[in-house]
Design brief:
The chain contains nine helices and 17 strands. With 300 residues, the protein is an alpha/beta fold. It folds into two domains: 130 residues; 158 residues, Rossmann fold (3-Layer(aba) Sandwich). The longest helix has 14 residues.
């Protein structure tokens, strides 16, 4: 059985995308059949089992016999769940530095669905407890917390530009992404209708253009290695911009935040997913938005 854990507030989105749902417990969706591609799951429990038990000690024993380290997803019976968790080895916090190596040991996930039944999966799709990626944040330099989305993508998924590459950052103000890209050693063309934070604007290798991103023609910029966008706009408008750049042939690597206003635009989301080599995920640091990346090679 495969179980998918929705991020806080995005259970409806997860339910809308999954097939063969057999039960829902809190934000955990249980399914029959093989693993499914999921944009919205924060954590996928790939060998989930339903385990009945009588006592707290028996529950802890059942978990220990299946794996060493466990993360608890608690949505009900919190005290009893915590008593069980307290009998398990305590995992060290997995707090990452930017671009640091990923943790090595897998961590399982479990939840209590009633007083005498738990669901446990010794394997999940993430090395982070319940898929929650935590960083030692830089609380002084970046002017917004948006930089954490790129930190997550670059560190956890290995999707990142190289030193010396030319990148465009659309919708860059106040400058969190531009700062990350500049720190990676890229030459950054940073574009927004609003100005960059002054200390970011002063950094070397940043060229700022104060203009409407949708009026910037690819031919004006020329060939670039990466297209980044965190523009607040309708998904369909962002898709047009990506398609315009793709058909120009001037760029082949794209990283964009698809932001939803009001409801989730599933239709445009599907169009993004259908683009060649595109991968779409709700990153841990995404809000009501998802991140799409499209790589030059078929490497995802
Ligand atoms: C979420 S903020 C970007 C945050 C930024 N990535 C950071 O790390 O600090 C979205 C930005 O999109 C910009 N924006 C919205 N529509 C735009 C447009 N048509 N052209 C350029 N920028 C636009 C807004 O001015 C805003 O600064």
């Amino acid at each position: 059985m495969i179980a998918y854990l929705a991020p806080e507030k995005f259970l409806p989105e997860l339910q809308a995308e999954l097939k063969n749902i057999v039960a829902v417990h809190g934000n955990l969706v249980l399914t029959d059949g093989p693993i499914q591609t999921s944009v919205w799951a924060q954590n996928i429990w790939t060998n989930a089992e339903i385990i009945p038990f009588e006592s707290v000690t028996q529950a802890a024993k059942a978990l220990k016999s299946r794996g060493l380290l466990w993360a608890l997803y608690s949505f009900d019976n919190h005290r009893r769940a915590q008593l069980i968790q307290d009998q398990l080895p305590k995992p060290r916090p997995r707090v990452m530095d930017f671009l640091s190596p990923l943790p090595k040991d897998p961590i399982g996930a479990w939840t209590l669905i009633d007083k005498n039944t738990l669901i446990a999966s010794s394997e999940t799709n993430s090395l982070f407890p319940l898929g929650a990626v935590a960083f030692n944040e830089d609380k002084t330099t970046p002017p917004s917390r948006a930089y954490l989305k790129l930190w997550e993508l670059f560190t956890v998924y290995g999707v990142r530009p190289e030193k010396g590459q030319k990148v465009v950052d659309f919708g860059s103000c106040p400058g969190g992404w531009t700062w990350v890209l500049q720190q990676m050693g890229c030459d950054v063309i940073s574009i927004d209708r609003a100005p960059l934070d002054e200390k970011i604007a002063r950094l070397p290798r940043i060229q700022f253009m104060k203009t409407n991103a949708f009026n910037v023609k690819p031919s004006t910029i020329g060939a670039i290695d990466w297209f980044f966008s965190d523009i607040i706009c309708y998904p369909a408008k962002l898709l047009e911009l990506v398609l315009e750049w793709q058909s120009s042939g001037l760029c082949q690597n794209f990283v964009c935040t698809i932001k939803f206003q009001g409801g989730t635009d599933f239709e445009t989301l599907k169009k993004f997913q259908a683009l060649e080599n595109a991968q779409v995920l709700h990153l841990h640091h995404n809000k009501h938005e998802v991140t799409v990346w499209i790589r030059k090679s078929s490497k995802k």
